[in-house]
Amino acid sequence: MPELDLESIIARLQWSAEGLIPAVVQDAHTQQVLMVAWMNAEALRRTVQTGETYFWSRSRNELWHKGATSGNTQRVQGIWVDCDADVLLVSVTPAGPACHTGAVSCFFRTLEEFGE
Amino acid sequence: MPELDLESIIARLQWSAEGLIPAVVQDAHTQQVLMVAWMNAEALRRTVQTGETYFWSRSRNELWHKGATSGNTQRVQGIWVDCDADVLLVSVTPAGPACHTGAVSCFFRTLEEFGE
């Protein structure tokens, strides 16, 4: 990714009261939506600087390099900002399944299947 | 959409402290991610019952039938639930642009463009 004035971007993004922004992760090739996770400013910095996705885990309360344990990292192809600047869309090439269940995408159940 | 035990589904979804769940809206045909908005239980009920998207507007603090004013409704083709049951993915056929700016998708700027 080209040089960015990342700190000025971070200052202008609309972070939640907890200092987080939701990030939709989409497969750059298949266009499949893989997962939604949260980033804090540091997660966004590391994502831009390393070219791999980092998130903030709200359950573990810690920075999380996606794939650090599983090997299923996500190579960033591009990042988009929505009109309100309160959601990010991250286009990636995944090294493996996005979901901790082993599914390619975390969205592996329809509402109907979830209801069964 | 087939009959669902929607109230039992609503009871099992992981709503935020404010009673909301983020919904990623994706074009069923192009696979483009169009927008992310929030649903409360009533927005989800109406979305399922009418086959068009409803959201909860956090800024206006009211239920919002997408396209009620602009005509740019979204016909629901399917709804998916993520592994943690705290995000929905809604596949739609849009009647027009998703974004209030007139853009097809709310994600019309890259992070670089947002930084300019």
- Roughly how many Å is the radius of gyration of chain A? 14 Å
Per CATH, the architecture of chain A is: Roll
Count of DSSP H/I helices of chain A: 3
Give the averaged pLDDT of chain A, no decimals.
96
Count of separate structural domains of chain A = 1
Query: What's the CATH class of chain A, please?
Result: Alpha Beta
Low-pLDDT stretches of chain A are none
- Give me the CATH fold name of chain A: Ubiquitin-like (UB roll)
What fraction of the residues of chain A are assigned to beta strands by DSSP? Answer: 25-35%
Helix/strand structural class of chain A: alpha+beta
Helix content of chain A: 10-25%
Describe the structure concisely for a colleague.
The structure is a homodimer of 116-residue chains. The first copy, chain A, is of the alpha+beta class.
